[in-house]
Amino acid sequence: MRACGILPVNKPVGWTSPDVVAFVRKRYKYPKVGHSGTIDPFGTGLLLLCVGPATKLAPHLADLPKRYSVTALLGATTDTYDMTGKVMSSAPVPPETEGRIERLLMEFVGEHDQVPPMFSAIKIKGKPMYELARQGVTVALPPRRIKIYEIVMKEIKLPRFSFEVLCGPGMYVRSLVHDLGQKVGCGGAVEALSRIKIGDLTLDRAGDPKTLPDNPILLSPDQLLTAWPKLPLGEFEAGFVSGHSISLSVLFDRPALNTGQMVFAVGRNGLSGFGEVKSGKIYPKGSFV
Predict the structure, then answer these.
(1) Is 192 within 8 Å of 161 (Cβ atoms)?
(2) In whole angstroms, what is the distance from residue 266 CA to residue 237 CA?
(3) What's the pLDDT at 124?
(4) Residue 82: active-site member
(5) What is the mean pLDDT of each run of 10 residues along the chain (289 residues)?
(6) pLDDT given at position 146
(7) Is the pTM of the predicted complex or chain greater than 0.90?
(8) Can you name the residues that pair with 267 across neighbouring β-strands?
(9) What is the rounded CA–CA span in Å between residue 231 and residue 275?
(10) In Å, what is the CA distance from 42 to each residue of 14, 133, 268?
(11) Which residues of 192-210 are buried (b: 16+ CB within 10 A; e: fewer)?
C-alpha cells in the first residue's frame, strides 16, 4: 500500500519549509511530499507534511486556524518585518507604551485588511515576492482580508513583548507586528516566532525531522479535518475512486449534507478519498487508494 497521510514535524530554525519537504522525501523515499503552509526560515514550529495522495488536501489543511507564539521588538523597522532583515529605521519607544501596548494589540482582533510583507512567498507572475524584494523590485501589494480570532499577551518587558495569536489563513504575524509598531509610533519587528497549533493538533505531536523514527506514523487526514463528515460508499466505492460522481440518494447512513460541503468517502478499508457535495451528488476531488 502506498504511503498516504499527514506527518507533523517541528521545523528547525534556519530551515525553509521546502528544506523540510526535501529532507523527508529523500530520507523516506516518499514519491510525493508537500506542505500545507510555510513557516519563515527564522521561525520554528508545527509544519504539516502531506505524503502521497494526501498532498491533494494541502489547500484544505492550509485553511485551518493556526496559533503562533511571538516575541516582538519595538523601536526598529526592517525590510523583512523581522530582525533578520535590514534595519530601515529606529526610534525610541515612547514612555507611555507599556500602559497602552496591550490595548493597541487587541485592536487587531477580528476581521480587517492586512498588507503582506514584501519578503513573502506570495507569487507575482510566477515569482515569489521575496525573490523580487532581493532584487530591489518593489511591488505595491493589495491588502487581503484576514481574521484574527484571539490575541493573548504573555509578557511585556519593553522594548520586547511576547504574545500568542490565533488566526485564520493568510495572516502574516510579521505584518501584524509591523502595523502595531506603526501605531505605537516607533516601529516594530518580529524577533522570534513559533507555530504551536494547527486546527486541533498541537506542537507536542510533532518531531524534529532529523530525529524522526525509521517508520514514522502518518496521521489519517480525518484526524485533522475533523469537521468533514464521513460518507460510507458501500458498493459504489470503485466508481468513486475511478472518478465518477455518486448520487447521495443511493447511499445509506448518510448525514445531512449541504451543497459545497467537503466530505470524506469511506470504503471497505477506511478512507477512500474525499469529495464535494453538489446538487445532490458527491463529486470526487481526490483518491487515497
Answers:
(1) no
(2) 8
(3) 67
(4) no
(5) 89 95 95 92 96 95 97 96 94 95 97 87 68 69 93 97 97 97 97 98 95 93 95 91 92 82 92 93 92
(6) 97
(7) yes
(8) 270
(9) 10
(10) 5, 17, 44
(11) bbbbbbbbebebeebeebe
202: which 3 cell numbers?
498541537
What cell was used for 239? 466508481
SS3 per-residue string spanning the chain: CCCCEEEEEEECCCCCHHHHHHHHHHHHCCCCEEECCCCCCCCEEEEEEEEHHHHHHHHHHHCCCEEEEEEEEECEEECCCECCCCEEEECCCCCCHHHCHHHHHHCCCEEEEECCCCCCCCEECCEEHHHHHHCCCCCCCCCEEEEEEEEEEEEEECCEEEEEEEECCCCCHHHHHHHHHHHHCCCEEEEEEEEEEECCEEHHHCECHHHCCCCCCCECHHHCCCCCCEEECHHHHHHHHCCCCEEHHHCCCCCCCCCCCEEEEEECCEEEEEEEEECCEEEEEEECC
Catalytic one among 19, 40, 79, 179? 40
Length of the chain: 289
Give the Cα separation of 82 and 133 in Å (integer).
14
Rounded Cα gap, residues 245 and 285, in angstroms: 10
Contact at 8 Å (CB) between 72 and 104? no
